[in-house]
UniProtKB/TrEMBL annotation:
PANTHER family to which the protein is assigned, alphabetical: DIGUANYLATE CYCLASE DGCM-RELATED, REGULATORY COMPONENTS OF SENSORY TRANSDUCTION SYSTEM
Residues that span the membrane, as ranges: none
Protein name: PleD family two-component system response regulator
Gene3D superfamilies: 3.30.70.270, 3.40.50.2300
Coiled coil residues, start to end: 128-155
Chain ranges of the Response regulatory domain: 10-126
Alphabetized UniProt keyword annotations: Coiled coil, Phosphoprotein
Length: 313
């Protein structure tokens, strides 16, 4: 399987000897590669930036700055570092070869070279480069897919807020954090008052819209670390990290008041809802979230019993 066509590949050739440039250019041209030529290290650095070649054939011994320095400079730029550099050098010295690889070269070919061998090496390094790019793209796509799946698994489709699964997972994490650092954290359990009446009066679809509207109101009045989600039906939960029960009551009261004050236009009339909220907080000895939710549920039950549209801790 070929990953590239030679005419789509630009090869930069760097050599201070004009004849060398011509010979190499001829060889590459016959195969169909695109070529760009420069005759010193400074030009090479400029050309790499402006032309972004797919591969570089780099002479080692050049006046002013030599190939090793050029290679090092290119490699130190993250935007250019994935361009494969093949040294083409008259030097047979082991030390030069080792330095070239140390500076980040992918290969080292000595002059005079065999045409077929040079072309085979160029081809192999281009193939490796394109495989790396393909793999990188696949990994990015996979990462995106995983993120999408995670979002799907953790959010409520109607409102876009977190779902019960996610809320419980975060709550368990908060319990561990609270145990370790001796923090407190508050849980608000919120239920829309007489919601059946909204459904009975306006229909289930309008009921859905009212739920969506309500979640937006709540989101507008929460802090960034707070975790708000749908626990089920028209019941919602807010997790407040590093928050004690008194502060939790203040937040709950603010949410209750904001929902009470706002209304949504439905079929030409303003519909407003109220919520009741039960507040509980983590206390030493709580091993799972169930115990805290249970206390919040009892508080919510009392809020309903005492006339609704209120907060009870
Ligand atoms: P209370 O004040 O005691 O909470 O009265 P309520 O009428 O709200 O009673 P309850 O909480 O028991 O009932 C909730 C109703 O909410 C029943 C159910 O049909 C409705 N409901 C639950 N989920 C949805 C939903 O996703 N969309 C709509 N439109 N209605 C829902
Ligand atoms: Mg030279
Ligand atoms: Mg209700
Ligand atoms: Mg309910």
């Amino acid at each position: 399987m070929t990953l590239f066509r030679p005419e789509d590949c630009l090869i930069l050739v760097v050599d201070d000897v004009k004849l060398n440039l011509q010979v190499i250019a001829n060889i590459l041209d016959k195969v169909g590669y695109e070529i760009t030529l420069v005759s010193n290290g400074y030009q090479a650095l400029e050309r790499v930036q402006s032309a972004r070649p797919d591969l570089i054939l780099l002479d080692l011994m050049m006046p002013e700055i030599n190939g090793l320095e050029v290679c090092e400079k290119i490699q130190s730029n993250p935007e250019l570092a994935d361009i494969p550099i093949i040294f083409l050098s008259a030097s047979q010295e082991q030390e030069h070869l080792l330095q070239a690889f140390e500076k980040g070269a992918v290969d080292y070919v000595t002059k005079p070279f065999h045409t077929a061998e040079l072309l085979a090496r160029v081809r192999m390094h281009l193939e490796l480069k394109y495989s790396r790019q393909k793999l990188k793209k696949l990994l990015e796509e996979q990462k995106e897919l995983v993120e999408q799946l995670e979002k799907l698994a953790n959010t409520d489709p109607l409102t876009g807020v977190w779902n019960r699964r996610y809320l419980l997972m975060i709550a368990e994490q908060e319990i561990k954090r609270s145990q370790r650092y001796n923090f407190s954290f508050a849980v608000l359990l919120m239920d829309i008052d007489h919601f059946k009446k909204i459904n009975d009066t306006y229909g289930h679809n309008i009921g859905d819209e009212v739920i969506i509207f309500m979640t937006k109101t709540v989101l507008n009045h929460l802090r960034q670390p707070d975790c708000f989600g749908r626990f089920g039906g028209e019941e919602f939960v807010v997790l407040l990290p590093e928050t004690d029960i008194d502060e939790g009551v203040i937040v709950a009261e603010r949410i209750r008041e904001n929902i009470n004050n706002e209304s949504i236009a439905v079929e030409g009339q303003q519909v407003s809802i109220t919520v009741s909220i039960g507040v509980a907080s983590y206390s030493l000895g709580d091993k799972t979230i169930d115990a805290i939710i249970q206390r919040a549920d009892q508080a919510l039950y009392q809020a309903k019993n005492q006339g609704r549209n209120r907060v009870i801790a």
